[in-house]
Amino acid sequence: MKKPAFLITIDTEGDNLWRNRSGHVTTKNAAYLARFQQICEKYRFKPTWLTNYEMAIDPVYIDFARDVIARGQGEVGMHLHAWNSPPAFALTDNDWQHQPYLIEYPREEMRKKVDFMTQLLQETFNVKMLSHRAGRWAFDEYYAELLIEHGYRVDCSVTPGVNWRFSPGAPQGNGGSDYTRFPREAYYLDAADIARPGASPLLEVPMTIRYKHSGLMNTLKQGYDRLRGKRRTPSVYWLRPTGGNAQQMITLAEKTLADGADYVEFMLHSSEFMPDGSPTFTTEADIDRLYADLEQLFSWLQSRTQGMTLAEYAAAKSAT
Which terminal residue of the chain has fewer beta carbons within 10 Å of its beta carbon, N or C? Predict the structure, then answer.
């Protein structure tokens, strides 16, 4: 690649799922996505819309995504929230409340859900599904095996340095995936151990994340937390907007590229482009500040990177 890639990944899902534990999901945010698509195209970047069930059946989103695909200005990939994705299977006494991880389900139920979502997306958008991100970032070897069987080429579920064990899913489960010892750069994963490089055809593209503090400081903080009876992962910076953090994102991207990375990966949820679609951006003024931050970040990245979808990046990696 002549320049490092800028990978824009959007978890494309229902409205304010942080707050919604009722079982009734709305998809009003589908009407707010065109503005973000326009700013991406302004800077010649191509988002990957990682799409879950409720969005895949929303007529507004379907029309939007088909247009993006037809014009070659982005990609649709798969995103799967296990508690809300057919076929139905009750894992807990209230799956909407607990929002269990897909990797907590019986293997046969995992397979059925991956089969269904892959087929639904391919039939709806008339394209092969190549890119994927797990719901709630939960990934394991069997999940990887299912993706490989379906011909996926790239996954972006790994959040290096983050331990999701402290985030509960099913009450009888062990929490999410622990990524504290995973690579930070893209790698073809070992299907028998997704934490290490191997010979599988599935490219893992970890999120762009860096620790806020030094290794020594993290050790001291975690030791102090244990004494207080608390468990949490060390603090990190993500390449994602949180409101007024444009310079922080630029600094993170700059350090990542300076370390020799051949990509930086940005993420956000589709509902965050809509007022009151998330806990972070609740008003129209918040959304305007979000776009002001995006203008600064995208402007800085435009001359330093090249826009690619996840599948385009995977194809470029395989050609080298």
Answer: C
CA distances 238 to 17, 122, 186, 197, 250, Å, are 20, 30, 16, 23, 11
Q: What is the pTM of this model?
A: 0.94
What DSSP character marks residue 110? H
> How would you label 236-253 residue by residue, b for 16+ Cβ within 10 Å and e otherwise?
bbbbbbeeebbebbbebb
Which token pair is 5? 């890639």
CA dihedral 191, 194, 197, 198 (to 10 degrees): -10
User: In angstroms, rounded to a whole number, what is the distance separating the alpha carbons of residues 188 and 191?
Assistant: 9
Q: Give CA–CA dist 161/86, Å, rounded.
A: 32
Q: What is the pLDDT of residues 238-266, one digit of tens each?
A: 999 999 999 999 999 999 999 999 999 99
Q: What is the dihedral of CA 256, 259, 263, 269, to 10 degrees?
A: -20
Q: State whether residue 27 is helix, strand or coil.
A: coil
- Cβ atoms within 10 Å, residue 285: 10
Contact 161, 180 (CB under 8 A): yes
Q: Shortest CA distance to 151 belongs to which of 314, 317, 316, 264? A: 314
Identity at 259, one-letter amino acid code: D
CB 154 within 8 A of CB 312: no
- Residues 107-164 have pLDDT tens digits of 999 999 999 999 999 999 999 999 999 999 999 999 999 999 999 999 999 999 999 9
**Domains delineated in the chain:** 5-319 (3.20.20.510)
pLDDT for 23 equals 79
Amino acid identity of 79? H
The DSSP bridge partners found for residue 307 are 6
- Helix (H) or strand (E) holding 266, with range, is strand 263-269
Contact 192, 183 (CB under 8 A): no
Distance, in Å, from the CA atom of 287 to the CA atom of 273, rounded to the nearest integer, reads 7
Residue owning tokens 């990609």: 75
